[in-house]
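SAMPLE LOG
Freezer: B-3
Tube label: C17
Construct: single chain, 643 aa
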Amino acid sequence: MAQDQQPPSIDQVRAQVSQMLDSLPAQVPIAATVLFKVNPQKEGIFLQNANALTEATRRLPGCNVFAFHKAVKAGGPSEGIEYLIYEDWQTRDLFRTQWDSQHLQRFQHSVGDLIVAPPDLRFYYGWREYRTDIPGQGQERGRYTDRQNSSSGYGGHGGGNSYASMLSFPYAMSLFGLQQVANIFNPDKAAQSFENLARATEGELSVPLRAAFQLGDAVQKAAYNMTFGAFGNRNNSSEPFRGWSNMAADMMQRTTAAAAQPFTPAPQDFSTQQQSYGRNEPSTARQNAPSAAAQTQAQPASGWGPMPWPAPTMPDPPQAAAPAQAPPSSSQPASAPASAPSPSMAEPNISPDYPYAPHYVDVLGSRMHYIEQGSGSTILLLHGNPSWSYIWRNIIPYLSPLGRCIAPDLIGFGRSDKPQIEYLWRDHARYVKAFIEALDLRDITLVLHDQGSGLGFHYAMHHQENINAIAFFEAIVRPYPWDKFSTPEFREIFRKFRTGGVGGEGWQMIVEQNMFIEQLLPQAAGRQLSEKEMNYYREPFRTRESRFPIWQFPRQTPIGGEPRDVWEAVSEYSERLQRSEIPKLMLYATPGALLTQEHVTWCQQNINNLQSVFIGPGLHFLQESSPHRIGREIAAWYRNLPR
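STRUCTURE (predicted):
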């Protein structure tokens, strides 16, 4: 481009893209990528704008994927920090809603002031099925075929060739296995061979089976990346965008969309690689945005990572709130060493502070502690095991402008009393009901997690006249046969938790070794909990005697028909939940622990008046990995509830 040639304005670029979109069939799938080089001094503003764009776009129908990725390269961002946006839509018409939206136009008009080089904009459409061949010298890596004309690409017709192929397949697989043994010292080559074989097999599947394969493959890769991603970056040359991370979590948004097909750039790709967004309109970005350093989470030394997700400005804590007393930092009681958590899958800017004034109410002869913020209709947040109201600290600021947020500590947990009771499920149900009555709570919206979900569902289904709505995640929505409970690994440890009585194997793990706090909690938090956060979680359970309620909850979980009274109670509220007209919101993550994909699908198919929202990667204690997303989603849903 000549130096005196002015780049086209954003309006000119938009006109060209609109002309291209008009030339496409209405139902053709479409995807797009844009590569930005962002001015390091303005990265904070860019992230704010990108955050707003992402949140608005993911709410639109037909959006399979919308994700930002950030380049993390050694040597510093002297030439600009690279960001990639990738989006995938079910049809051109649904994408057109995004293209014509006000939120996209605001972002486009602001980005010209934030970048140091022309953006690279590319569209992809008209894709067909893809199969990968293992290439020889000079061969192409893969081949695209129309299914109607694909038979010639697979060796022709005729019974003789078909039977010969049936005989040659096991022979070829035997040699393939031998080759993989030879590749034992070349893992990259072995991995590529398996990838090629998997892609070739995928090309032979029918559309429903291929969709099932793609979903299962995304789940497996997401689980693998979450577990092993910290041990090194993979460079998978079969990925469509080399050098960019595989964001399996974002790809999992396809689970609620129509089955997506593999795609390739069409021969008539529309590209504005040599064009830049002009600066013919003033930027709408806030100039007082936080610095990029303050908003960026730790990234690997090189490669690509997910775009940091900036947290919104948090409301000030209530004026009446006394400074939180720091938890004791004295030596811990005899316990197992803290277990290293899984690689982080968390949002940035998760505060460890607990700036809430304590409140107490007498319930059945004991004091129950709770925190309170906001005014209006009641939003009651019930925690699970082994947490307490501390776990809601980063979610309440999103909800307190909308109502009176109350988060109690279950009896025996947090700063509530620990009376001499058995801490059976029915005991907790009795105390929750009495707590609600003691505070005379009315028109309640429940926000439920873990064991708190069962207690909340139970109350709600027996007092539907007092319930406005129910939001839940990682919840007990029905009783479990053993083979349907959680993941195999968690299932095994839960069996041990329930083994033996006082002094038995479960007692040793939970009461003597404090395993729930020191190992299970940090492993299932989805990120590295700080020492300050761990001390808050340790605070209520520093003695063996104080851990008795933690020990009882696994034994009171309805699995395999036991305990019988809990199994029957949960079965009852599950049946009522399916028929109830009360508005419900289910948030879920991948891979999850209680709400695995199977249970998510069951809820979507069986629970009446349910809205479900995928919030990204996560394990069990989602309040510690995605509090900002949880808070935003519940707040948005709450605002739209019928009044």
